[in-house]
Amino acid sequence: MDIRRADDRFRTQNEWLDSRHSFSFGPYYDPANVGFGLLMVHNDEVVAPGTGFDTHPHQDLEIVTWVLRGALAHQDSEGHSGIVYPGLAQRMSAGSGIQHSERNDAGEPVRYVQMWVRPDEVDLDPTYQQAEVDDSLATGELVPIASGLPKHATTAAIRINQRKAGLYAARLSPGRAIQLPRAPYVHLFVALGTITLEGAGDLGTADAARVVASDAQLVTAGPEGAEVLVWEMLA
User: Which terminal Cβ of the chain has fewer Cβ within 10 Å, N or C?
Assistant: First the structure.
């Protein structure tokens, strides 16, 4: 297990953006930290009201966005648009090429996590999908919210074009425990609250763990509860 603390990440800060990068991103490059498993980008972003990312291009990426506070407005060159908010999962498959914008048109800062994985195939048609998962998260279990794993063919809220990766979310009440998936690569991110990870100890908000050959370690929520994002990856 490799524990990565929130304050140890590469960080982009300006008048409208505060972004922490789990892996090399933009001007921040570390040849020893360019991804984990199939996960290429894992950015924890806070965008000020009335600002955001203007239209920009992507190609051959599966981009998953998970909002923790506030709301994020999406528009793309394929005619898709939507407001992403807590409890709604969003996926954009860039495929052969797409342009999109992400802006905070609300009156409070928006905090969200954006994650990128490579697809199984290149030059796919660009597509977009979003789905409500609030009711499922109320169970306190790990919920597959964006997955291409065959075992999630009928259970994932949204699908990604990568058969060896899947993203779960869980909202844990104080003291609630869950098990990580057994998988070659597991990435655990504490989106909100605090947890205790079996074999590693305490993790706080925005801390992460990279687990190789996961053996279903226990994750136990702290006294205020927690929200976690977990990637299961087979390669």
Answer: C
Convert the pLDDT of each residue in 97-143 to its tens digit: 999 999 999 899 999 999 999 999 999 999 999 999 999 999 999 99
Overall number of domains in the chain: 1
Tell me if 158 sits within 8 A of 93, measured CB to CB: no
| pLDDT for the residue numbered 114 | 98
Amino acid at 178: I
For 201, counting Cβ atoms within 10 Å of its Cβ (0-12 exposed, 13-18 middle, 19+ buried), the class is exposed
Of 65, 72, 84, 103, the C-alpha closest to 191 is: 65
Question: Which amino acid is present at 65?
Answer: T
Q: Closest Cα partner for 73 from 111, 105, 116?
A: 105
Sign for the CA dihedral angle at 194, 23, 216, 144 comes to: positive
Q: What's this model's pTM, rounded to 2 decimal places? A: 0.97
Structural domain boundaries enclosing 58: 2-233
Residue 229 belongs to domain with CATH number: 2.60.120.10
